[in-house]
Structures are given as C-alpha cells and as structure tokens.
Amino acid sequence: MNRKQTATFLLILLLVTGCKGKQQHAPTGQNNRMDYPLEVVQPQNITLQSVYPAIIRGEEDIDIQSRIDGFIEAIYVDEGSVVKKGQVLFTINSPQSEQNLVTAQASVTSAQASLNTALLNVERMRPLAEKNIISTVQLETYENAYASAQTTLEQAEASVANARATLSWTQVKSPVDGIVGAIPYRQGSLVSSANTLTTVANTRNVYAYFSLNEKELLDILKERKNTASSGVSGMPAVNLILADGSTYPYKGRIETISGVVNTTTGSVNLRAEFANPQYLLRSGTSGKIVIPRIVSNTFLIPQKATFAQQDKTLVYKVQGDSVVQKIITAESTPDGQNYAVTSGLQRGDTIVTDGIATLSNGKKINVTP
After folding, report:
1. Residue pair 66/194 in contact by the 8 Å Cβ criterion
2. Beta strands of the chain (E only): which ranges?
C-alpha cells in the first residue's frame, strides 16, 4: 500500500508540473490581438442627394364654371376623362337666354321697319325741299330721324349678337387639353355662375412645387455659380420620387426660384417642370424632389464602419496598436451603403471597417502595415 501511494503521489506531481510548464509557455501579448479589416481614408469628390417633399400641380388647373343660370341638361364626360380644347363638357338649359334672343330678334325687326319708314320719309321730302316747297329744316328733321333709326337698328343687332353669345354659353366647353376632375353636380342640378362644375387640369407637363431653406439655397447657388441675372440656367436636372417609392422615368428642371424669402419659415419656394406624356402624374398628388449635389474633399466610408452613440456617429480610428473612438459628421450616399464624412477624419487616417461590435475604446489590435 505504501508503494502504491508513493507511485500515485509521484504521478500527480508530474502532471501538475507539466501543466504549469504549459501555462508558462502559453502565447501572451501580441499573439492575443485580433485582426480587423482596415482602410486608409483619402479625400474625393462625391455626389450626394438632397430630398424635399413636393406637391404636383398641372401646368394649367382651370375651374370650369357656368356663365349663365340654368339646369344641367346633359353631361358628356366623366371624372378622369381626357378631353381636348373646345370639347363640350356640359349643356345648360337656360330658358331665359333663349327668351332674350327672341326678344332681341324682335327688336331688330322693329328697328328695321322704323328705319325703312324713316328712309321713305327722307326720299319723299328731299324733292320737295329742292323745289322749296318745304324748308330745309323740315328735311333735316326727317334725315335726323333716319340716322336715329339706323342707330336703333345697330343697337338691336348688337343685342341679338349678345343674346346669341349668351345662348352659346349653354354649351360649356373645355378651354384646354387636360383631364377632368370631380363633377359635383349632376343632370338636373340648378347651377349659376357661382358654381364650379368641374376642373380641367392640363397635365401634359406638370409642376412640382417645393421649398428650400436659405442655407440650402445658398449652397446650391454657390455650387452652380448662379446669380440673379443668370436665373436657373445652371441648376442641375432633378428627379422625382413618386408616392410608391419609385423614381419617375423623366427628369425635370427647375424653372423658377422665388425672389422673396418667407420670413416666418425662412424658406424659398421653387418650381420644377416635368414632362408627363403618359398622364401618369395627376394634379394634387405628392412626391419628393431629389437634387444632386457635389461635395468636395469628402471621405467615403462604409456604413458598417460606424456606430451611433446618443445622437452622434462614431468610428474606430487606429492609433498606434490600438483603436480610439472618433466622432464624425456624415451623410448617407444615394446607394444607402456608404457615408460621406465631411468632418472628423483627415487624409491618411486609418479606420476599422468591420467587426466594430467587438471593439472598445483603447482596445489593442493587430495592425498590418
């Protein structure tokens, strides 16, 4: 038993000594550090996008109103119909207009008869005046009556023309090519000049109205070297994002910039025009205007190289053989995968581009030259 106990004791002693030897030769220091993908940043010119909410309006949005009082006799279009200039939209039944025309025509007949009588009187009295049977004053009286009858006839004829024009208003026509809006009144409704029968929006071309603040406008104008005298000739082409998130296939151009800044909001109104050959855009819809802008001396880094802390964006910058947290000012690029860093980094800085979840401020890493 003593020999067995001694042998067991020696065996345990040898195992313990071996474990201590292995622990003493385990890798430490540099060999415990991890490898991370690194990137040396260099400045470049990057195209970014500024997005602004916009309201779409037709090139012409015209309220169609009845110019006379009456009942809607017929409706020839429906809401959303595409109409041409001069196309009849409604017929208004206006008995008063018809009666006015009849009365005016009767006045013309009466005036014509009076004119004929006055002419006969002049022709009858002129020979007598020439033979001094009647005085010239009497002849002039008949001639004045004839001139007055002519004027009365002209007035009656003008009344007929006016009555016919008024009667033509019973046919309500479209003043432009466009798309019919809502029709609030139906056949049989009593309408007057105060009622809007519908709206016709000329949307062959549409206008997108949006606003910029003063700083954004100054940045764009300085970048494009625009001045008040040059107008908007140097403004970039813009894109339109539709309500479903898709990009409208036709690019637009900025046509006008308001000359007055809203003192309440500090914003300036702009208008961009877009072609609309398929009538895809309708007046009153919404969208987003996208204006491209070039930013110089900017560092492009992947978004996965950043992390958020409170309201700040940070990266891990390599300093010696460790990393330190660095606050940056960045803006997302159009691809949604990178950031354009405008401040916080300098040319030649090295940053960690992936695996930042395992890092902490001051942690040592493997740095490969």
Report:
1. no
2. 38-40, 44-65, 70-75, 82-83, 88-93, 171-173, 178-180, 190-191, 196-213, 239-241, 253-257, 267-275, 286-302, 306-309, 312-319, 322-332, 338-343, 350-352
Any idea what the Cα angle at residue 40 is, between residues 37 and 46, rounded to 5°?
110
Q: Which of 119, 116, 122 is nearest to 138 (CA)?
A: 122
Q: How many CB atoms lie within 10 A of CB 112?
A: 15
Query: Which neighbouring-strand residues pair with 57?
Result: 207
Distance, CA of 289 to CA of 50 (rounded, Å): 8
Tell me how far apart the alpha carbons of residues 158 and 152 are, in angstroms, rounded to a whole number: 10
Task: Identify the bridge partners of residue 50 per DSSP, sorted by sequence position.
Answer: 291
Token pair, residue 319, equals: 């300093």
Is the CB of residue 169 less than 8 Å from the CB of residue 67? Answer: yes
Q: What is the pTM for the complete model shown?
A: 0.62
In the predicted model, is pLDDT for residue 229 greater than 60? no
What burial letters (b/e) apply to 336-347, b meaning 16+ CB within 10 Å? Answer: eebbbbbebbee
Q: Can you give the pLDDT at residue 90?
A: 96
Q: Is 80 exceeded by the pLDDT of residue 363?
A: yes
